Amino acid sequence: MTKSKGGFLLGAIIGGAAAAITALLFAPKPGKELRDDITEEVNNLLDTARDYADIAVEKGNEFMDVAKETTEDIKINLKDTTSSIKTQFTETTKHVGDDLKKVKEDIKEKATDVKEFASVIAEEGKEEAAAVTEEKKAAVEEKVEEIKDSVEDI
User: Fold this and answer.
1) pLDDT per residue over 85-130, tens digit each?
2) Residue 129: inside a domain
3) What is the dihedral of CA 46, 51, 54, 56, to 10 degrees?
4) 56 vs 54: CA distance, rounded Å
5) Residue 134 domain-assigned (yes or no)
6) Which InterPro entries does this UniProt record tie to the protein (predicted)?
């Protein structure tokens, strides 16, 4: 039953009972019969009230069961989501670590290449410097010879 139907039904029952009691009070009956009729109507009203109370308790229990089930479902979903996120984080961390190792190895290789290139350049520079030095030395010796020759001629 929906709330509006339940309220209407309860009002109809209470209104009917009140009308029945009023009718009994105004009916020409002896006192004993009237009291019995009123007692019967009150008992009917109490039975109806108990029925509504039982229905309310039953609905409350149903709502509680649904709430418990929903809570359990939410807990399970949260655990699954947490587990999934943890797995993704672990995998990502592993990939980042692997990438960092590769970058470190690449840097070491590049540093070694640069060092070797610098050694080659330095060696070539030494050789060229030695060649220039030899040329200059030969030129100086030639000038010295020319000067000696000029001095001897004087």
Assistant:
1) 999 999 999 999 999 999 999 999 999 999 999 899 989 888 888 8
2) yes
3) -100
4) 5
5) yes
6) Desiccation-related_membrane, YtxH
Residue 148 sits at φ, ψ, to 5 deg, of -60, -45
**Six-digit token pair at 50?**
């108990």
Q: Would you state the structure tokens that stand for residue 87, as one six-digit string?
A: 């797995």
Cα angle 20-26-30, degrees, rounded to a multiple of 5: 100
CB of 41 within 8 A of CB of 17?
yes
Q: Which two tokens stand for residue 57?
A: 């308790």
Domain of 52, in residue numbers: 35-153
Cα-based distances in Å from 147 to 31, 135, 137, 153: 167, 18, 15, 10
Number of domains comprising the chain: 1
